[in-house]
Amino acid sequence: MKVRVIKGTNQIGGCITEVKSDNAKIVIDFGEDLPSQEKEVVIEKPMIEGLTTGKASYDAVFITHSHGDHIGLINYILDDIPVYVEEKSQKIYELLCDFTRKEAKVNTKRISFEEPVTIKDIKVTSYIADHSSYNSAMLLIESNNRRILHTGDFRNHGRKGKILESTLKKIGPVDLLVTEGTSFGRDEIEYDTEEKITEQAIEVFKKYNQIFLLQSSTNIDRIVSFYKASKKTNKTFIEDLFTATITSYLKESIPNPITFKDVYVWTPLKYRRKNEDFKNKYLKPLEKFSNSKVVFQDYSMMVKTSMLNDIKMLKAKGAIVNACLVYSMWEGYQEEESFRTFIDNVELLGIDFKIIHTSGHADIKAIKELAKITQPKKVVTIHTLNKEKSKEIFKNAVSLEDNEEIEV
To answer: Please, which residues have CB within 8 angstroms of residue 227's CB and are 6 or more apart in sequence?
Structure first.
């Protein structure tokens, strides 16, 4: 097999990896670039011959998870090329598109964990991974007695962290490891666990009557962490409509308004102006779980940057008396205008600002465990700004540039 990183050897997010055998050619992940201090991201159609333009020459695309920098551009893939996505990741992606008025690719194929998919002479098997996106996957690609593991984004300090070791032992040794290296530019050797995040949140929540939580709605682990902190500090837990829609779909043991009697829904003002189709699909099924009285109690509420007017309204009604905005996302998002404007305006309302966060990505400890168990003959690091550090961790690290090819 041959592997080419079309994009991702010198950036975090927006990675595209090509794997080619004697008879087949597939792509792993197809997402948007993340914003940075150096550039403003403009989403446009990637021009890749045989994948997004011209005659289809790829046999399949596999998506590791529902974050926009991994799935966000799949609507540009030629219709003749099947796109494989895990069922719940696909649904979360579709919901995000519905709420942001983005065109979604709906004719995708489902892939289930540990059930191989054969594409000509390539076999792809997905394994569940711990990450800040629900049901993320690692992908084992096999052909001609060669084995490649593409980790996608992963970690071992989340609520599924304990499965990393057992999953990697199932996979076993590989010929090539393609792994994320997001943490290579950071100082921490080991990140805080979600349990530690809950402890930190409890200490902050004790000091305030109202807590506004600015976090990703797809970071289910963090929702659980903040829900537990809310329970410990006697605060009513309120999810914005988008978050409540996701958690109500996933249900299971995830805090959601349908099966949790102490979880309520807040419908942001912007959604009340939506058309009737949207209201019938999303507002009405959850409106019975709204209760305007709960904002006059101590509460924690999940918010979005588009909810500044909601917060101003709550302030005017006397529903905010001693409040804090907790930021729990990648720090780089604060450089975006929408985030900066929101945070600045919230602080002008007399609401304190705190950061409680842990990474959704593998720390150095997890990376070393990965190397120890899979014993790769060669390693290529993507999803990083510091790929040279991989040589300090992996004895068989190969430093590639975008569009360079390596043979396995």
So the answer is: 237, 255, 263
